[in-house]
Amino acid sequence: MKIKVCLTCSQCLLLMFAKYMIWFATPDLYVGAGRCRLSKVGAGRRPPPARVRVAVRLRPFVDGTAAAGEPPCVRGLDSCSLEIANWRNHQETLKYQFDAFYGERSSQQDVYAGSVQPILRHLLEGQNASVLAYGPTGAGKTHTMLGSPEQPGVIPRALMDLLQLTREEGGEGRPWALSVTMSYLEIYQEKVLDLLDPASGDLVIREDCRGNILIPGLTQKPITSFADFERHFLPASRNRTVGATRLNQRSSRSHAVLLVKVDQRERLAPFRQREGKLYLIDLAGSEDNRRTGNKGLRLKESGAINSSLFVLGKVVDALNQGLPRVPYRDSKLTRLLQDSLGGSAHSILIANIAPERRFYLDTVSALNFAARSKEVINRPFTNESLQLRVLAPIKLSQKELVGPSEAKRARGPEEEEIGSPEPTAAPASASQKLSPLQKLSSMDPAVLERLLSLDRLLGSQGSQGTHGLNTPRRERMVLMKTMEEKDLEIERLKMKQKELEAKVLAQEAVDPKDKENSSPAVLRPLARRTVTVAKPLKKAVVMPLQLIQEQTASPNAEIHILKKKGRKRKLESLDASEPEEKAEDCWELQISPELLAHGRQKILDLLNEGSARDLRSLQRIGQKKAQLIVGWRELHGPFSQVEDLERVEGISGKQMESFLKANILGLAACHRCDTS
Ligand code: ADP
Ligand code: MG
Fold first, then answer.
1. Cα 352 to averaged position of ligand 2 atoms, centre (Å)
2. Which of 59, 150, 301, 349 maximizes ligand 1 atoms within 8 Å of its Cβ, making it the mutation to test the pocket?
3. pTM, whole model, 2 decimals?
4. Which of 29, 121, 586, 665 has its CA 20 to 30 A from that of 597?
5. How far apart are CA 60 and CA 553, in angstroms?
6. Between the CA of residue 552 and those of 518, 541, 560, 662, 670, what are the distances in Å?
């Protein structure tokens, strides 16, 4: 059940709850509806933009370079800007402005509190957030993200705060029950490796129907305390692929991604569910192979790192230029970051730079990348849904999304862990308490009344109505159009039936003898013809042709077909055995003046008084012409004679003539039938 709601509107919430109750009563109406249950809150509206925030951190000199008296090539100007020497012109400096600049004296706490801590609250709103450390190898990315036991970086600080926040917000008596899970992976040489389960091979990155990026089969560990986090994280960090380069003894050879998910379940109706994801990413550095001294495997690794960072640059450029295609899929890194760059996350990019002159070119390129990233606009939204099955485990949706190949990869005991990630008893016990029926009985009577009336309203539409509610808009339009066409078709068939009935009556009226013969056996061929009467007008003329042969003997004959119009035939040659339709094309009618006048009068009356529908009962008048006639009448008043029809725009003189021929006889015959 895909639901779009606005959280501020009580009617929407009521409708959601009503739908929920109906689902509970008639789950089979919603077969297959459980696939994409989370929805973007306010998906109807465009989420407000949130620019990617960019901070630059300059690390201090390391390895005693400062002691050698080397001046830094970068200098901070204030808390947001810095300057770097211009290699093209030594008299000049290049100036950059960012959301924050952290100088060499800044502490881990400064960086964390200034740029990372403020976005954590969005996770509890069901929104995504990401922190990326970018910069050349040895510039301090890992120091910023991970730090050391003495100087913990962004990751431990954020985890500490997040766990504290979830404990406070999800405590007993609070409206939401919260749970936190963690996953840890690295992208090494374009392979996605699960650091919590190094034995698993390369994992696939998928996108769900809401555009969320996910990795089926990735281990998720529930964590309730910082000790829990450390228990999983520290050994996993040792699994990370590192190697020594000339720039950094323990250079990160891969992009490391820590994913922390915060799941929320509302304890009371309407039992909403939210999911916020936090990506903490320590990117591998861009490498200049001349300086790293890379050869063999290191060179190959470096190629993969460089190419993924190159794609990252292309993604940022495409987003900035508003290109229709953003090359997220060109590398695993950008595919994973699709959520964070130009996507749905609150994103922070921390560009790490080094003060040493040997880093100069890398520093300039890192600063340029950071300046381009600053222009990228994200649109964070809240991932929210109704808990369709109150007792279902949170990870049901994740499991549903695991494809057959991924399901194979998901291992036995691990799968159990993925499948039941609720670490605390609180959410489970809370959910066990939740029964919509119990809540209903203890509900405010006014609310209950409104819900029941909504329910009645939906019920009164019958199953068709309920299906209509679930039918996507485009499909609904197609169905409605088909129904309209069917109605028109029925209408047309009814008209044809009427015409045929009129003809039969006319035939009976003209010759009572014929009436005797018009036993079902005689009428049957006519009735059968209704199926094939593609040209009913011709038949209307043919019938009098048959009559005339008998009527030539009658002195009271009122309808005559005498004149030869075509060159090939004469009246005398008219033989009943001859094909009727050919004859019709060649002969014109002569009708007694009295009947003609009557027919004309009838047509005139119909033209002046008949509705568009009545007019369509006339020969040669379809829907369009009927409307034209009614429109003309409204504009110019009644028709004084039938020939006025010619004045109606869209009806030519020739058409009018054939209209008269086709109609007068039928109506005259009807008159005769009436009077006899
Ligand atoms: P990267 O991950 O970008 O390759 P590292 O984080 O490993 O770089 O940093 C390289 C070296 O610089 C490490 O020895 C680290 O301790 C040191 N370092 C980085 N940033 C700082 C800082 N802000 N203060 C002190 N030392 C730092
Ligand atoms: Mg590193």
1. 11
2. 59
3. 0.54
4. 586
5. 125
6. 21, 17, 8, 22, 20
